[in-house]
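quick one if you have a minute, typing this from the bus. below you get a single protein, a line of residues and a line of whole numbers that encode the local backbone shape. could you go over both lines and see whether the tokens make sense for that sequence. anything you notice is useful, everything is just below.
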Amino acid sequence: MDVYADTVRQYLEFAEHADDSPCFAEWTTRVAGDAEVLAWLAELPVPKRQPNLVLAAARWHGVAAPGPYDAFRAALLGDDGTIRSTILERATQTNEVGRLATLVPAFAALAGERPVALLEVGASAGLCLYPDRYSYRWSTGDGVRTAGAGPGLACDVRGPAPLPSAPPEVAWRGGIDLHPLDVADEDQMGWLSTLVWPEHDDRRARLLRAIDVARRDPPYLLQGDLVEQLPALVDEAGRHGPVVVFHSAVIAYLPEQRRARFHDLMTELVAGGRCHWVSNESPRVLPAVTATGPDATDHRGFVLGIDGRAVGWTHGHGRWLRWL
């Protein structure tokens, strides 16, 4: 989803992709046709109108979900500034560790037998920096493949994905974010929990396990601009091993011109041998990567890329992987 797109389009697209959250699918569909709520949203800065942020802010202030749309609508239209303030102060920083089940095959393909320096762009609380601390269960057409030890992550896989027998070893892990979250901060972790869709109790439980994993060995997170400060951080990571830069559902939050600059920067870094690059974004976010794969029309997943080339499709929460 493009957070800079027309508001009605954003909410309709969100509804289409939220079919496993009946509550959010209904709420966002109705927002798209509600002139008063759209007028309320129009008072917000464009990137702050995004559905997941608005939905989470309303829930943060007591709107029950699952619940009736009318209660959500009344909360927005009757807001005394409290919900608006949360929307302006917070960000959508969903830290979905379930995506690791779709990312680990790409990491492993790049790592080979070498421990890697793992660098996440838009790291949030850094929960996805621990692929070596989880166990994986990949269901394929030929049976079940497993790897690793720790909390379990499951994924349905189709296609010739390079599923490893063990997760990659991580020699160094770090990330960069405009507003990195602290895994020891209960308020910030509570916000991450609120960002999980209301019916997704399994994801909420997984988030709590991921927070526990990260708290045992807190990640190195740098506050900064991902375009301006990334090259120096790549060089810092490179002192510890081959660098794999990755991101998932992050670049959509950049304006289009900055997305193009980020793509060019990553292309330069990869071409210069300074790192590898694993991207996992909606099809329209990095069009040059999407264009290297088959037609993306009507596809309802993320494009998984390695070094700027599409290698698969993934579910936004890591439920499935389709390797090209």
